[in-house]
């Protein structure tokens, strides 16, 4: 996939040139991966892609312990290792020189400490935010990226299918979560793309609740929200089940959410404001009288990160276009009672049509 990385890097370099920047510094590890192919979490250590517009050079600064793997995977060949005892900002300045007037920065990820270090070693520079341009690039997926997300979806759907065979009454949420995360590794995932959510009974009304010692009991809603990372790309799927037989109210709520998800997916196409996708799903829930129990956006972008652009909320007037990949996940969450969420992953193809990438059934499944 190195040619894709080079193409992305060329586009970013051209953008920096239009800003008349001397330097571009990309610090977010996921953005470093997007442009170089080197995928790493440096933790507290320094890692950055630096584009030197004056010398027409690109540098990848990495922790010294990651040098070998960076050399194997990065499309940027000038790799500078930084030892733990060194000041990384001094290493950057010594490598590039400090005659810099304008730097392109991802302002969302630059901390005050990092800014202070840059101010010290590149005295008197100004900066412009390049984060929005990068987010716009990442938002439009290539077919190769879609294929990677699709593979991650296949893995997590296999986990879901096998996982629900293993759940039993009296098992704790945490115990079942461990079973699911074991299956992720067994079926080829690099790991979960976020902390797995398993919630039962009244806890299923907590959209981002955490699994705990609560036991999964007969009559409970069982909400499972999970995803995996495979080869640097994420999946994210939610399904809600019932332990045993559902009540009439459970069936009513479930059917409303299912119709809302279908409406959101059906609305997804190029040429419309993204907010219309949210509105299409939300309207189903509102008209059924449950609007006050759905108070978050309907979806988010999906790719290298499990949450990225675009944000699919009712006030987003950005126009949907080919290449966007996002979730559609309406829900009804009734405090003290329980909740239902059904989540699909949707891609807008080259013809402008919404294409559903998830295939796990949305019919209500009873777990006996």
Structural overview:
The protein has 368 residues and is α+β, with helices and mostly antiparallel strands. The chain contains ten helices and 20 strands. The longest helix is centred in the middle third of the chain and has 21 residues. The two termini are 45 Å apart.
Quick rundown:
This protein is of the alpha+beta class. The protein has ten helices and 20 strands.
Radius of gyration: 23 Å
Read across the widest sheet, the strand sequence of neighbours is 4-3-2-1-5-6
| Form type | elongated
Roughly what percent helix? 25-40%
Order of helices and strands: HEHEEHEHEHEHHHEEEEEEHHEEEEEEEE
Task: Estimate what percentage of residues fall within beta strands.
Answer: 15-25%
Overall pLDDT score? 97
**What ranges have pLDDT less than 50 throughout 5 or more consecutive residues?**
none
User: Biggest β-sheet: count, sense, barrel?
Assistant: 6 strands, mixed
Distance between the terminal alpha carbons, to the nearest Å? 45 Å
SSE-based structural type:
alpha+beta
Number of helical segments with 4 or more residues: 10
| Count of DSSP strands | 20
């Amino acid at each position: 996939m190195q040619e894709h990385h080079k193409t992305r890097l060329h586009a970013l370099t051209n953008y920096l040139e239009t800003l008349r920047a001397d330097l571009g510094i990309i610090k977010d590890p996921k953005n470093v991966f997007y442009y170089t192919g080197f995928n790493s979490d440096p933790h507290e250590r320094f890692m950055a892609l630096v584009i030197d517009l004056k010398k027409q050079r690109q540098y990848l600064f990495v922790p010294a312990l990651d040098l070998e793997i960076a050399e194997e995977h990065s499309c940027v060949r000038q790799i500078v290792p930084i030892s733990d005892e060194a000041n990384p900002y001094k290493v950057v300045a010594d490598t590039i020189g400090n005659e810099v007037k304008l730097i392109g920065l991802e302002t969302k990820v630059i901390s005050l400490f990092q800014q202070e270090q840059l101010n010290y070693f590149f005295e008197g520079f100004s900066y412009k935010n390049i984060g929005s341009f990068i987010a716009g690039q990442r938002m439009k997926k290539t077919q190769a990226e879609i294929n990677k997300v699709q593979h991650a979806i296949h893995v997590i759907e296999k986990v879901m299918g096998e996982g629900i065979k293993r759940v039993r009454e009296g098992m704790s949420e945490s115990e079942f979560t461990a079973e699911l995360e074991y299956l992720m590794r067994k079926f080829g995932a690099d790991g979960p793309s976020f902390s797995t959510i398993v919630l039962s009974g009244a806890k299923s009304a907590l959209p981002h609740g955490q699994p705990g010692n609560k036991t999964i009991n007969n009559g409970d809603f069982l909400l499972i929200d999970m995803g995996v990372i495979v080869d640097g790309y994420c999946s994210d799927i939610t399904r809600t089940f019932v332990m045993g037989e559902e009540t009439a109210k459970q069936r009513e709520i479930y059917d409303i959410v299912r119709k809302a998800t279908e409406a959101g997916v059906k609305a997804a196409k190029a040429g419309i404001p993204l907010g219309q996708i949210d509105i299409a799903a939300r309207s189903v829930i509102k008209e059924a009288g449950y609007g006050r129990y759905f108070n978050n956006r309907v979806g988010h972008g999906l790719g290298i990160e499990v949450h990225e652009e675009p944000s699919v909320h009712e006030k987003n007037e950005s126009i949907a276009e080919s290449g966007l990949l996002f979730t559609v996940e309406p829900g009804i969450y009734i405090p003290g009672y329980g909740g239902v969420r059904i989540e699909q992953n949707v891609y807008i193809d080259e013809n402008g049509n919404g294409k559903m990438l998830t295939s796990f059934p949305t019919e209500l499944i009873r777990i006996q």
